[in-house]
Amino acid sequence: MNYAIVAKKDPYSYQVEAILKKTLDEAGWNYDKEHPSLVICVGGDGTLLYAVHRYLNKINEIRFLGIHTGTLGFFTDYTAEELEECIYDLLHKEPMVFASKLLKVHLTKENKSFYALNEMRVENVIKSQRVDIYIDDEFFETCNGTGICLSTQAGSTAYNRSLRGAVIDSGLSLLQLAEITPIQHSKHRSLNNPYVMMDTRSIRMEGEFSDALLCYDHLHYCLDGMNTIICEMSDLEVHFARYREYSYLKRLKNLY
């Protein structure tokens, strides 16, 4: 088995990484950071997101497993205290594989695409951002405020949740559109509620994006000069290797 480890930059995570690597190497596994079949993420959700983007060019060929050493591990299957059990499962069990599609964000002017596991956001903290929203080329509404968030099922518990968006059950592939601090008054009204839609929808955002940022997962890109963004589900998937029973409800309860 070719594997790689991506660890959070703290002493505890490095310690877990060292134990994990020593044990797997002694068991005959091959450590290969360039061509892994399995990427083990030691840290939290941020570490896993970093690993997903690190291996984006090979994403459909890799499985991911998370070991939690941080403050929040929604994507992680084991805690550091369960390291011995995790190693046993890795060496003796065949995993179930759960796939989660990546959201594709395309900037038409630059013909450049970005990908997100959780969400994409258009944010402008300098001035009000006016965005025209089209769904499947049909005009939907004009939003005016700090910005727009479009999340996947996986991202429904992340930034979307802070916007009072719905938490989407595991196994449902949906998109959710939510406004960020919208301006509502007698001269301008928008839906002002999160909108959940099929994952086959294409969402087009148009506006003058001067001073705005495209935020995708933990990354960002300056939108100066851009005026059209197209979002849709991609053919790229993150494959999670699961060696034991997965309880979405249990993980959800750990959030609050």
Automatic annotation (TrEMBL):
Involved in the regulation of the intracellular balance of NAD and NADP, and is a key enzyme in the biosynthesis of NADP. Catalyzes specifically the phosphorylation on 2'-hydroxyl of the adenosine moiety of NAD to yield NADP. GO terms for molecular function: ATP binding; metal ion binding; NAD binding; NAD+ kinase activity. GO terms for cellular component: cytoplasm. Its EC number is 2.7.1.23. SUPFAM superfamilies: NAD kinase/diacylglycerol kinase-like (SSF111331). Its main location: cytoplasm. NAD(+) binds at D45, G46, N118, E119, A154, T157, A158, Y159, N160, R161, S162. It is found in: Cytoplasm. This is NAD kinase. Belongs to the NAD kinase family. The gene is nadK. One of its GO terms (biological process) is NAD+ metabolic process. Its cofactor is a divalent metal cation. The active site is at D45. Keywords: ATP-binding, Cytoplasm, Kinase, NAD, NADP, Nucleotide-binding, Transferase. It comes from Amedibacillus dolichus. It catalyses: NAD(+) + ATP = ADP + NADP(+) + H(+).
